[in-house]
Design brief:
Layout lengths: L7 E5 L6 H11 L3 E3 L3 E2 L14 E2 L2 H9 L3 E7 L2 E6 H8 L3 E5 L2 H7 L7 E7 L3 H11 L4 H15 L7 E4 L3 H21 L2
Parallel strand pairs: 1-7, 1-8, 2-7, 3-4, 8-9
Antiparallel strand pairs: 3-6, 5-6
Length: about 190
């Protein structure tokens, strides 16, 4: 069950808007935070480690986990599956604050569990062309992949109302400061409820 002293932050953003960097900065600043490591069927990127960045599984393994009701949420994104394991979340929450690095589909599903007290933050760029620049600059995706990610930007915008906070990341430090303040304020609220 959810320990009232631990908070759960959901961070969502279009690909390339800085979510992963912000997630890592939260972990460096607050040693109480752990990242909920998602299961995925996509292949690891060269710098990714199984069990640290993601739990990499086959499509068959993922489908079995779905059938066995092992996920709080899962979604199919760009031809791959991503999911949040109930077991690992429940275990981590006993002693840690938690960050979920998930998209709007996952956020909607997680929101259905009343025992999970979520603080939902959406990080975005100021516009689509800014996002395109970032995606091209990070140079991780093929041209068709970049186009696919840009198309999903229009879809993402429709779900902003599901979030508690929307932050435009024009400057990484400012963006992180805003996230930090949200964490501090929500922590303070929890402790004042004692």
């Amino acid at each position: 069950m959810h320990d009232s002293k631990n908070i759960m932050i959901v961070l969502s953003s279009p690909s390339g808007a800085g979510k992963t960097t912000i997630t890592k900065k939260i972990q460096q600043k607050f040693n109480s935070f752990r990242i909920s490591v998602s299961h995925t069927t996509r292949k690891p990127r060269p710098n990714e480690i199984d069990g640290v960045d993601y739990n990499f599984v086959s499509h068959d393994q993922f489908k079995k986990l779905i059938n066995d009701n092992k996920f709080y949420e899962y979604a199919s994104i760009f031809d791959n599956y991503y999911g949040t394991s109930k077991e690992s979340v429940d275990k981590l929450l006993k002693t840690n604050d938690l960050i979920f690095d998930i998209d709007w589909q996952g956020t909607k599903q997680l929101s259905k569990f009343p025992n999970l007290k979520l603080i939902k933050i959406y990080i975005t760029t100021k516009n689509k062309s800014d996002l395109k620049k970032r995606l091209l600059k990070r140079n991780q995706d093929s041209h068709s992949e970049v186009e696919k990610r840009l198309k999903s930007f229009d879809q993402d915008i429709k779900h902003w109302s599901d979030y508690d906070y929307i932050i435009i990341n024009e400057n990484l430090e400012n963006c992180f400061k805003q996230v930090e303040n949200i964490i501090f304020n929500n922590k303070k609220k929890l402790f004042s409820l004692e």
